[in-house]
Write a structure and sequence with these properties.
Layout lengths: L1 H20 L6 H24 L6 H14 L6 E3 L1 H12 L1 E4 L2 E5 L5 E6 L4 H5 L6 E5 L2 E2 L5 H8 L6 E7 L7 E6 L1 E4 L3 E6 L4 E6 L6 H14 L4 E5 L8 H11 L5 E6 L7 E4 L13 E5 L6 H11 L4 E4 L7 E8 L3 E11 L14 H5 L3 H5 L7 E3 L5 E3 L8 E2 L6 H9 L2 H8 L14 H13 L6 H24 L1 H11 L2 H23 L3
Parallel strand pairs: 11-12, 12-15, 15-16, 16-21
Antiparallel strand pairs: 1-18, 2-9, 3-4, 4-5, 5-6, 5-7, 7-8, 10-11, 13-14, 13-18, 17-18, 19-20
């Protein structure tokens, strides 16, 4: 009796998942084929339950069957379990419940706090930058990355998380309990004046509040004297389509096409446009947009619309190439089905989806050449002013700039974590002012500290890499002393070739914008 109930419970779960998929097929022949497929699936499940040496749980079989089914569609249709669905909703809402700490994985296999969110539970509990998570709720964090630790730190509002922390210089571990509270998850991650007249906005992802937050950031920067803007969409995987449309509306002119969404054959396309107005956008400043290979989806919608309408110039690397549109269908309110329902096309008609017919390895694993060479093999299209752009394989920037590899300097950061460890140990002795580079005395102490850690760099290598080492050390100092935004700002001006190129081409972006106005008779 129990075996029959277990088998039929599985059947109901799978039928529930297939019900979302079922409308994609129709007609009597398809119905018969689907029935035969379900009968085969049920028979195989029954054999597994009776004869497998280690029968899976009903949940395991159901989830595996769903994921296998979705893999026949495309790389982006997916099933979200309870935790994944909750995290997705938190990210979209622009807030989550946690402790209020910015964390980062360390080379020793643990995760450390790199900054504390002012007024949050972590600050009230006395945590500070440099503290390392050793245990969460009595279980080790060793070998876990920052995303895994982040998921363990988040939870329901008002619940308690118990932490065991290691503080640099302290002999004893610190045990404490923190009550989770609402923490803003601002997708507009940075907003500051890069120079006296150039504003800078970095959007981390696209959520429910992103468009409003972007508008507020623009207004604030204008008050500070902004005459031109650099919009950073690098490493932005996308998110809400509404947010991408909302930002595009703030940057483009009246009644301009943002994207066209084309679904199944036989269905009418859906056109998304800016509002009808009697004047162009009030945001009439020159614009440069930064993209890289990890800019995807909603990021590409914004970048593609700006490029096709000649609203600004794109700098960086060819974007990811995700031209598929998903909707999230809630399953029993606690889980979700992300299902691809359409392709989108940029205003010029481009479909920028990369080919995924040759396996997911080719789709997800990009070699070095693929990431820094512009796609020129796709069909040609024209922008409003007649410039040539290409379809297929992502959004090609107007200026391709690859960030250089700083071998020794990056090894100290990424492999050894030396800069962070040093500035935490030396925090009380650091005197750098905002935007000020590490002085000669600090560099001498840093090299001596490296020697004490058995990290020895030859005089020749040190001389060759000293400028890059100084920049990386200063970034970490600025972040620790004045917040991560200060560190990011220093990095942008001192070492980021893509930002520097964006600053260089802003006069050309202004000229392009003026030509755009002239064509529209404004």
């Amino acid at each position: 009796m129990s075996r029959w109930l277990s088998r039929n419970w599985l059947w109901i779960i799978i039928m529930g998942a297939v019900a979302v998929y079922a409308p994609l097929v129709g007609g009597s022949q398809d119905e018969k084929a689907r029935k035969r497929g379900l009968e085969t699936l049920t028979e195989v499940m029954d054999i597994i339950q009776k004869q497998s040496i280690a029968p899976p749980t009903p949940k395991q079989v159901a989830y595996a069957s769903i994921q296998g089914m979705l893999q026949t569609l495309d790389p982006h249709s997916s099933f979200m379990d309870e935790l994944e669905f909750r995290n997705m909703r938190d990210d979209q809402k622009g807030a989550y419940f946690g402790i209020g700490a910015i964390i980062q994985g360390q080379p020793d296999g643990y995760v450390a706090i790199v900054n504390i969110i002012a007024g949050g539970p972590a600050e009230r509990a006395g945590l500070r930058a440099g503290d390392v998570f050793r245990e969460i709720d009595g279980k080790t964090t060793e070998g876990q990355n920052s995303n895994q630790v982040m998921r363990r730190l988040r939870g329901e509002k008002g619940t308690t998380v118990t932490l065991t922390m290691q503080r640099p210089g302290a002999e004893q571990l610190i045990d404490l309990s923190i009550v989770r509270a609402e923490i803003p998850n601002n997708s507009v991650y940075y907003s500051f004046m890069l120079t006296d007249d150039i504003g800078f906005i970095k959007i981390r992802d696209f959520g429910e509040t992103t468009s409003d937050d972007f508008g507020k950031a623009i207004a604030s920067l204008k008050k500070k004297g902004m005459k031109a803007l650099i919009l950073d969409l690098r490493d932005n995987p996308g998110g809400s389509l509404d947010a991408a449309i909302g930002i595009s509306k703030q940057l483009l002119g009246p009644n301009e096409l943002i994207l066209t969404q084309k679904g199944r054959e036989g269905r009418e396309p859906v056109f998304f446009r800016t509002d009808t107005d009697d004047k162009l956008s009030a945001n009439s400043f020159p614009l440069a947009v930064l993209i890289n290979r990890r800019s995807a989806s909603a990021s590409e919608i914004v970048a593609g619309a700006i490029q096709d309408h000649d609203r600004g110039l794109l700098v960086g690397e060819t974007s990811w190439g995700k031209g598929l549109v998903q909707v999230v269908v809630p399953i029993n309110r606690t889980r979700g089905l992300g299902l691809t329902i359409a392709r989108y096309h940029t205003p010029s008609g481009r479909c920028i989806q990369r080919d995924y017919q040759h396996g997911l390895d080719d789709y997800y694993i990009l070699d070095a050449e693929d990431s820094d060479q512009a796609e020129t093999t796709g069909p040609e299209y024209r922008t409003d002013l007649g410039r040539t752009v290409y379809g297929g394989g992502g959004i090609r920037p107007d200026y391709s700039v690859v960030r250089k590899e700083q071998v020794i300097a990056n090894r100290l950061r990424n492999v050894l974590g030396a800069y962070f460890k040093f500035v935490v140990a030396e925090k009380d002795r650091l005197t750098s002012k905002p935007g000020q580079a590490a002085d000669a005395a600090t560099m001498v102490r840093f090299r001596e500290w490296l020697g004490g850690q058995d990290i020895n760099i030859s005089d020749e290598d040190w001389k060759a890499a000293e400028k890059d080492i100084n920049a990386n050390l200063t970034i970490e100092m600025q972040s620790l002393l004045y917040g991560t935004e200060a560190g990011f700002k220093y990095e942008s001006l001192a070492t980021d070739a893509q930002v520097q190129k964006a600053i260089e081409i802003l006069p050309e972006a202004e000229s392009l914008y003026n030509k755009r106005l002239k064509k529209k008779g404004k």
